Amino acid sequence: MANVSTAILPSGMVARWRLICAASVLAITTSTLHAQSYSFAPVIASKGVSTDLEGISATGEVVGNYSDSSGNLYCFTLTKGKYAFLKAPGATQTNCWGINKAGDVVGNTVAGTAQYAFIHAKGKFTILQVPNSSGGAIAYGISDTGVVVGTYADSNNNQHGFIYSAGTYRSFDAPGAAATFGISINTSGLMTVGAYDAESNYSTYLFNNGAYTLLNFPQGQATFAHSINNAGLIALGWVDRNGQEHGGLFNTADGIYYVLDYPGSSYTEIRGINVHEAIVGDFALPSYDFSQGFTATGSVPKKP
After folding, report:
1. How far are the Cα atoms of 6, 115, 237 from residue 248, in angstroms, in the given order?
2. Per-residue confidence band for 293, with pLDDT thresholds at 50, 70 and 90
């Protein structure tokens, strides 16, 4: 399943996850399913027990988290084989979830029971002052133009999505959602959104110009959308009818889903994709009791 953090999400989901206007929900029903070949390479941080890679920029810089034996998460970036470990001042835990082509990283810090969304840019941490976020906030994605998306909890512990751009915040809720998460956003404003309903059922959407399109991986019991690149390719995790999690991509241009599993893995989840279609995520082999990260290169077919 998707990562578990000490974040404000309901137990079992990360943000590893209502626009104040009318919105519609569409379901993708005619999509086709294809296997696709990528070249995978494992990545494990020089510290910790497990490693999860969360995002990859246009320049190939990777952001992720590793955990120690107590399950505490720590943030790092990986550039040309070199690790840099990030810790926000005064934080007991720093979690990183997204990165853009400038190398700006977004995530959340934990200090006691408080959580704050942040941007790390040019060596400096800046806390995002999300309005009405007394219950905490997490930033999950950042576009190449600096637009940030995430989630926050209000004083009643109701959880909403937020968009931050040029000093302005907007709150939104997916239709019928009890909790909403802005997960990623590209330069065209296409956004991936996660939501729980009142019965704790999780759904994932593509948001485009006021419309929410429900994403359902064919033959899947559950779908977890993560990063969306500037060409509209979405990185996914999905669970089959046997309860096994797989990696996948969805091409918004033609409605085709692609299966992408780390070879021999017992589970795979793809979390990040860049404009060159390089992907990152995490996997486990049947003999492992912890996850490792991976990078992979390849491409999906394009219509002639």
Report:
1. 26, 31, 6
2. very high
Chain segment 9-66, per-residue pLDDT in tens: 332 333 333 222 233 333 333 345 555 678 999 998 866 789 999 999 999 999 999 9
Give the CA distances from residue 276 to residues 171, 230, 231, 252, 298, in Å, rounded to whole numbers and listed in that order: 31, 10, 9, 16, 9
CATH of the domain at 34: 2.120.10.30
Give a yes or no: residue 28 inside a domain: yes
Tell whether 1 is covered by a domain.
Answer: no
Question: Does residue 160 belong to any structural domain of this protein?
Answer: yes
- Whether pTM exceeds 0.85: yes
